[in-house]
Specification:
The protein is an alpha/beta fold and 149 residues long. The protein is built from four helices and eight strands.
């Protein structure tokens, strides 16, 4: 098995023979979001994504699809409010409805338009969840994106 270990922040990541053959050696299990009110943020994302709460333990609320596929989102309690722009965020596409209709739905669920310095010509809208965690609504719908493939 070929293994390269990172020796500096810019060194290549660990690589195995399985990766070279196109196989995966790991998968994303969960995406973590910190929140002062984890249940509020988890409920928001359940409504946005059509997911459900799959576990609650020590204040962490885990949500995921009803069929159990894919990674979960784990909303963990923290004492401090969000103060700076996220370095990682979710990009969403409208699925089965026009983007304008999806925007109205998200705003109705409590999302807020957010300025992170995006230009007027951006092909996405930046929004925030009830605690200010940014996410984007992309201009093209799922159908439009698939048509371009």
């Amino acid at each position: 098995m070929l293994v390269r270990h990172a020796t500096s922040p810019v060194a290549p990541a660990v690589c195995t023979e399985r990766e070279q053959d196109g196989g995966m050696t790991c998968r994303i299990a969960a995406i973590a979001i910190d929140a002062v009110q984890p249940r509020l943020v988890a409920d928001f994302w359940c409504h946005v994504l059509g997911w459900r709460v799959v576990d609650e333990d020590d204040g962490v609320v885990s949500i995921g699809p009803s069929d159990g596929t894919g990674p979960t989102i784990d909303v963990a309690p923290v004492p401090e409010s969000k103060t700076v722009k996220n370095r990682l965020h979710l990009d969403l596409r409208a699925d089965g409805v026009p983007t304008a209709d999806e925007l109205e739905r998200l705003l109705g669920l409590g999302a807020r338009p957010t300025d992170v310095g995006q230009g007027a010509d951006a092909t996405w809208l930046v929004l925030s969840d009830p605690e200010g965690n940014e996410f984007c609504l992309l201009a093209r719908t799922v159908h439009e994106a698939r048509s371009d493939e």
